[in-house]
Write a structure and sequence with these properties.
Chains A, B: Belongs to the FAD-binding oxidoreductase/transferase type 4 family. Chains A, B: GO terms for molecular function: FAD binding; oxidoreductase activity. Chains A, B: Its cofactor is FAD. The structure is a homodimer of 463-residue chains. With 463 residues, the first copy, chain A, is α+β, with helices and mostly antiparallel strands. The first copy, chain A, folds into 4 domains: 3-82, Uridine Diphospho-n-acetylenolpyruvylglucosamine Reductase, domain 2 (2-Layer Sandwich); 89-207, Uridine Diphospho-n-acetylenolpyruvylglucosamine Reductase, domain 3 (2-Layer Sandwich); 211-325, Alpha-Beta Plaits (2-Layer Sandwich); 330-407, Alpha-Beta Plaits, CATH 3.30.70.2740. The first copy, chain A, has helices at 41-54, 107-116, 133-138, 146-149, 184-188, 222-236, 248-257, 283-296, 309-329, 344-358, 394-407, 423-429, 432-445, and strands at residues 11-14, 34-38, 58-61, 79-82, 89-93, 98-102, 119-120, 156-163, 168-171, 196-204, 206-207, 211-219, 240-247, 271-279, 302-305, 333-338, 363-367, 374-380. In chain A, the strands form 5 sheets. In chain A, strands 5-6-10-8-9 form a 5-stranded antiparallel sheet, with helices on both faces. In chain A, helix 6 crosses helix 8, helix 7 (248-257) crosses helix 9 (309-329) and helix 10 (344-358) runs antiparallel to helix 11. Chains A and B meet through strand 9, helix 5, helix 6, helix 12 and helix 13 of A and strand 9, helix 5, helix 6, helix 12 and helix 13 of B.
């Protein structure tokens, strides 16, 4: 069925194995005609040209780590276009603080390339060992350093991409300023592969902070966490790179599934914050001063400050293992919401009431990038009960949580994207004018609807 | 001819006065059917709906301060849609660090609103007293603080806009993270009014730095300026908010046209830098230490450090008056280029050779946002000669300068945009694939070609 691709140079074809047909949470079981692995941008263009001529769907595939089913199609047989062989470092210019890599380079490899020249590529997500730059950009990934360095899109200076009809857009400029026409970079970043395939990107590198401090703190409440953030920003400015809220529930799951993992705080508080700063010489001392002031102001009641890289890593391991603890527990429903910063406490309060009205005994693990107004708000069965016991409540819980986020001017997908999982949410909560514009753009750049069909739009985006 | 607009509510119509038909450099003499001043977003939508139905062109008009003719049409009679009455502050939330304003608010007014709540809106350009937020965003304005805070687009969280057919896109979210579909914000920002009219925006506010230091420094060369920047960034990190290169030629023009203005440095060097930092407590002392180190390393040979707000303002006045000195002198050709940072010295060298091969006695004033790789590279007649003497060389000079920028992977419009002035440059230097995508998007969102006709594209963008 994909014989029409057989004669293309720089292209490997193979039968889709299970790895290409599932996603991390096991919610989708995909289908695929073939896995096409181009090694050059011309090969990408050739695949798209031929698929476009035949109306064959194409799913751009990076590391397969997305959490909203953007990488799997259950309803349509597509060519799975894996970028894994398009994985060269094209250019590294530490003097310009830029790194140009192809889409198949993993995020961890890009970070390592930057480190080689004594620079930082600050984007950091739990799946960075597998996630590839193409997918990271297509989904505008977020992660733990957004507070300081922004989302993926904020770290990209230029892109190369192939549109549905095979047109190559070559805009890999490494410039901080370039006002020459529409910003296709930002249109393709976050478009989840529905408008074209990102094949390479020029990334911004940052200086490695001279000093870094990491602490795990006990706070009274989410509101207290926000007060602490405001206080620390006043004292430490932009040097705060991470400010992660953690709830006792997440550590309880870790204690259950990873008994060897030590709780960092004796006091076992309900709410905690993992904070990290990085700055020039003297910033570690400034952080200690800020921490003392926070104790005096009773913004913090207990703390551990990492004294070594090993201790720092241990604190981060706790934060980064929470998603795995959640997965092993098995959620009824998980959410990736954001609201304006000041409304976070109200969100947590109202969402809790809404969830308990549906599933009174459910456990809630609410954690994440509180400094960005972004929470992962996950709902779990009561101890001793099974996910299956709540199967009828799942949709209600999801709707209830999303309605609270929407009522507070928030987003129902802060960083994971829409994929296939949240198409209905986009229809329901998205602005109607925005949806009209999106459909017009989709129809213009992908008139045959071959690019990641079923993602972002329902089955008939152009109807 | 615009009777079809007469009965619309919340809309004022008037005969176009000269102010609406010219632009700052006097290069264009525009035409216009009427000046339509809507006071609400619904009135904007009504105007566009009716113009679209009749195929009547619409030029969105902010403060009229653009430098590339984006706000004037010489070839087609259009409705001039001035946003000046759509000028409300919709919301100011210092706790969320956001400010939501309508398009007709001037940049200076937005800055003042932020200051009222002890916050900073950092975008700063010479025309900020007249430029309005709508135009500032439509052109993705840059200015002196891009080094630290980014371009206009980096300071916008959400927008409201009206598309050509009157569709209102209402996406004024005030979120740091929102991955729900295509980023229309970034598509409309920088589109120069060719896809729709931005009617309001949610802006990001920043903390006001606790301490600020400003200095005027003598450096040996542009290369030395870059070495100084790298050295200071190593010591002071992100606190450097402005790093402006200034050439002796600019100060000579000031001495001629503004004899009361004092040269800040006794040594009268060829190359100077205006640097400003802002940070938490202690950063002013850190700046002085960095300055001492720069003297010891012979990166700086002379310096004046502002000791008061008045002195700071005097230093900035010099920088901000340079464009007016240029205007009074009368340039043969002006350019707004950017190149990767490391290539700036080579650009200055090669462009100088290229210009002098065409106009051997021309004077060059090269200045600007060197920290962003962005230079305003302007060419002037020799003393005692007139612009008219060079009239035949102007096109050649412009082409030569742009060719050097392009050869160094640079941009021929770093911050001023394309407008009508640089349509040919976009055709010549722009990526062909990007141009194809731009035309497809333009045709999709503005099929009748009514939005700012003649800007960005030649007369027949959809042909």
């Amino acid at each position: 069925m994909t014989d029409f691709l057989n004669d293309l140079p720089d292209l490997t074809l193979s039968v889709p194995t299970q790895a290409y047909l599932e996603e991390p949470r096991g919610r989708y079981q995909g289908r695929g005609l073939t896995v096409a692995k181009p090694a050059t941008v011309d090969a990408v263009a050739a695949v798209l040209t031929r698929c476009n001529a035949r109306g064959v769907g194409v799913i751009p595939w990076g590391g397969g780590t997305g959490l909203v089913g953007g990488q799997v199609s259950e309803t349509r047989d597509c060519v799975i276009l894996s970028l894994e062989k398009l994985n060269r470092v094209r250019d590294c210019a530490p003097g310009d603080a830029t790194l140009t890599v192809e889409a198949g380079v993993t995020l961890a490899e890009a970070q390592a390339e930057a480190a080689k020249v004594n620079r930082l590529f600050p984007l950091s997500i739990a799946s960075e060992g597998s996630a590839r730059i193409g997918g990271v950009l297509a989904t505008n990934a977020g992660g733990v350093n957004v507070l300081r360095y922004g989302n993926a899109r904020d770290l990209v200076l230029g892109i190369e991409a192939v549109l549905a009809d095979g047109t190559i857009v070559s805009d890999l400029k490494r410039l901080r300023k370039d006002n020459t026409g529409y910003d296709l970079r930002h249109l393709l970043i976050g478009a989840e592969g529905t408008l074209g395939v990102i094949t390479a990107a020029s990334l911004r590198l940052m200086p490695i902070p001279a000093e870094r401090s990491t602490a795990f703190l006990a706070v009274e409440s989410p509101k207290a966490a926000l007060n602490l953030l405001a206080d620390m920003q006043g004292r430490l400015g932009e040097s705060i790179s991470a400010f992660e809220l953690i709830h006792r529930q997440g550590l309880d799951f870790l204690a259950e599934h990873f008994p060897a993992m030590r709780h960092p705080l004796e006091s076992r508080p309900d709410w905690m914050v993992l904070v990290e700063i990085g700055g020039s010489k003297g910033s570690a001392a400034a952080f200690e001063t800020a921490l003392e002031a926070a104790f005096e102001a009773e913004l913090v009641s207990d703390a551990v400050l990492a004294q070594s890289d090993g201790q720092r890593q241990a604190l981060w391991d706790i934060r980064e293992t929470i998603p795995e603890g959640n997965r092993l527990t098995g959620s009824i429903s998980s959410h990736d919401i954001s609201v304006p910063l000041s409304r976070l406490p109200e969100f947590i309060e109202r969402a809790g009431v809404a969830v308990r009205a549906i599933a009174p005994d459910a456990r809630i693990n609410c954690f994440g990038h509180v400094g960005d107004g972004n929470l992962h708000y996950n709902v779990f069965p009561a101890p001793g009960r099974m996910k299956a016991d709540y199967v009828n409540m799942r949709g209600q819980v999801q709707t209830a949580v999303h309605e609270v986020a929407d009522a507070l001017d928030g987003s129902v997908s802060a960083e994971h994207g829409i994929g296939r999982l949240k198409v209905g949410d986009l229809e329901r909560f998205g602005d109607p004018g925005k949806r009209i514009a999106m459909r017009a753009i989709k129809a213009a750049l992908d008139p045959n609807g071959i690019m990641n069909p079923g993602a972002l739009f329902d089955g008939a985006p152009l109807g």
